[in-house]
Known about the structure:
Oligomer: single chain
Number of strands: 10
Shape: globular
CATH class: Alpha Beta
Distance between the termini: 34 Å
Radius of gyration: 18 Å
Strand content: 5-15%
Amino acid sequence: xxxxxxxxxxxxxxxxIGTFLMQPDAAEEAVCNALMCGYRLIDTANAYLNERAxxxxxRRSGVAREDIYLSTKLWPxxxxxxxxxIDQTLARLDTDYVDLLFLHQPAGDYIGAYRAMERAVKxxxxxxxxxxxxxxxxxxxxxxxxxxxxAFLQVEAHPYFPQTELKAFLQPLGSVIMAWYPLGHGDxxxxxxxxxxxxxxxxGKSNAQIILRWHTQVGNVVIPGSTNPAHIxxxxxxxxxxxxxxxxxxxxxxxxGRRYYEAKPEMLEGYLQFxxxxxxxx
Length: 282
């Protein structure tokens, strides 16, 4: 495993497992399997409706809580009551603290919610803060209004859309990108780009493993999600080789500016209306 040091001095694994779209039972199994395979970074969210399941998977794995880097996210519909929402997410995860807490979307009173997260840091309930799906103008708003710079920005990032502008903006802050859709939403056109096929042949890896290794070498933390035990093992098996500078430069040429998700104003308004019962199951 490779690690990256955050702007709060904490070291974090550069590859973890994401649980987006996983039903509770599947999330519990995936988290348990991942931890037993050597993963130490788990990413979940209120809106994934599987926080309780992730907590169960962590306990089943037998891995000590202090050895796990656990991240979750607050959904916009709870921003107005963020202090209470943080306590509820800790209860669902059955833990005294989370290592990283994100604001999931830039909707509603995200400044007020971020201030509540800062209070949670001071109370020892949260150890680092992050923003998910925020663009540079919104990040500036948070920086101007708040005290603690985000340690992470969780955003879409992959070789077609490497977030070059955002990375340059974040560099002085010491903030790190955590990439979702790290494989381009499974786009076969991206995964099967000739450069990845050639490098996979050279290193005895899959195309997906080459892409995940590219991420970690450019400084991204990746959270590929899978419920397949073989894929879970493969996704972390990327640290026994290093792409050369020339190969990294070749990969940079596939940047096309293509992204697979972009929130529109009406979508952000809809996020405020989405207020499910976040308790996935007892």
